[in-house]
């Protein structure tokens, strides 16, 4: 298990017909050399956990619970076959393109050591947006990505440090529940009856997802009554 690439984005103008004017950092490119990783601060204030990576819309992106976004090379390969086009590392806006890790199948609260220093913790799957759709230029992309269910994973920074392409990735903690990033993604998008199951992940769950699950249980019960 390793990092194939570490990808950073620079601010650039949004010119998609489906998106209001502004700036985006979704167009991420692989970089050489070490990149500093640290907790960026609360959402709305903090941006990316990677030094030099732009997060332009901080109401919905960035912050401690979405400090790093990882996507599996294996899932990019699957999309390459389906779309009939080349998808380089960073094309999906991911900071980390991995090899040998079931990123979407990672459990909420699972911890990875990347390189010799950095420890990251899985918090949630990634919800697609119109900026993502415009960046790829694929019609109906939000729907297609959602139905595929390979969400990738957002991670928070537990131990800061430096990472670089080629670093090994080791799973150093795996919780005993079954709540994965993919399950969390399905629960908040297509199958809301799954929401009560998310609470088994406890405080490791992204706080916004936890609030959605708690509100659902308050209104509908946990499905066991």
Assign the structural class, choosing from mainly alpha, mainly beta, alpha/beta, alpha+beta, or little secondary structure.
Answer: alpha+beta
Number of helices: 6
The level of helicity is 10-25%
**For the largest beta sheet, what order do the strands appear in spatially?**
4-1-7-6-10-9-8-12
| Range of strand content | 15-25%
How can the largest sheet be summarized?
8 strands, mixed
Shape label: globular
* End-to-end separation: 42 Å
Radius of gyration: 17 Å
Order of SSEs: EEEEEEHEEEHHEEEHHH
The overall pLDDT average reads: 93
Contiguous runs where pLDDT drops below 50 for at least 5 residues: none
Number of strands: 12
Using brief descriptors, characterize the structure shown:
single chain; 225 residues; alpha+beta; 8-stranded mixed sheet
Structure explained in plain terms:
The protein has 225 residues and is an alpha+beta fold. It has helices at residues 73-83, 130-136, 141-148, 181-189, 195-198, 207-220; strands at residues 2-9, 12-14, 22-24, 28-30, 35-37, 68-72, 96-99, 111-114, 118-124, 153-159, 161-163, 169-173. The strands form 3 sheets. It has an 8-stranded mixed β-sheet with strand order 4-1-7-6-10-9-8-12. A two-stranded antiparallel sheet has the order 2-3. It is globular, with a radius of gyration of 17 Å. The model has no long low-confidence stretch (mean pLDDT 93).
